[in-house]
Structure formats: structure tokens, C-alpha cells
Specification:
There is one protein chain. It is built from two helices and no strands. The protein is mainly α. It has two domains: 1-56; 62-104, no CATH class. The protein is rod-shaped, with a radius of gyration of 43 Å. The chain has helices spanning 3-56, 63-99.
Length: 104
């Protein structure tokens, strides 16, 4: 093999390696672009859901006020229940007295 033939062989091999590297780079770039498009598509689909979640969970901030108001409401409910039981007992005694059964 002559020097010129060796140079052409080395040059051809290098050119083929460069072509192979270029094809691999193009394939990787295409895959990256496809992945970016898929990510964009999924994000566009998730955006309305994220807005809905934010809207639906906005009331969570108000739970502290609800918890603070629940204590007095529970106390008031217990007071009303005791008063209703007292009224019920007194009405029952009045009914027994009026019916002649006594106030036992």
C-alpha cells in the first residue's frame, strides 16, 4: 500500500466515523425534541388541573377560623341541649300534674 492509499484509507475511515457520530447525534437530538414536545403536551394538560386544585384547596386557609368558631358553637349547642332537656322535664311534670298522675 502506498502512502497515498494509506492516507485515503485513514481519511475514509475518519469520514465514516464522523458520519456515524453525526447520525447518532441527529438521532439523539430528534429524541430530545420528541421528549420536549411530549413534556409540553403533558404540561398543557396538567395546567387546568393545577388551577382547579388551587381553587379547590383555597378554602383550607379558612379552616383555622372554623376551628376557632367551633368551640363556642359546641358550648352553645350543649347549653341549648341542657335547656331543652330541662324544658322537656318540666313539661312532662306539668302534663302528669294535669292528668292527675302526680308529680313523681
Amino acid at each position: 500500500m502506498t502512502t497515498e492509499g494509506a492516507i485515503i484509507l485513514i481519511w475514509s475511515a475518519t469520514l465514516l466515523l464522523a458520519l456515524l457520530a453525526t447520525v447518532m447525534a441527529v438521532v439523539m437530538i430528534v429524541r430530545i425534541v420528541q421528549a420536549a414536545r411530549e413534556t409540553d403536551r403533558l404540561l398543557k394538560g396538567a395546567l387546568p388541573a393545577a388551577g382547579g386544585i388551587a381553587t379547590n384547596t383555597a378554602a383550607i386557609r379558612e379552616l383555622d377560623a372554623v376551628v376557632a368558631a367551633a368551640g363556642p358553637l359546641l358550648e352553645g349547642s350543649a347549653t341549648i341541649r341542657r335547656a331543652a332537656n330541662d324544658i322537656h322535664g318540666k313539661v312532662g311534670r306539668v302534663g302528669r300534674l294535669l292528668s292527675g298522675r302526680g308529680a313523681s
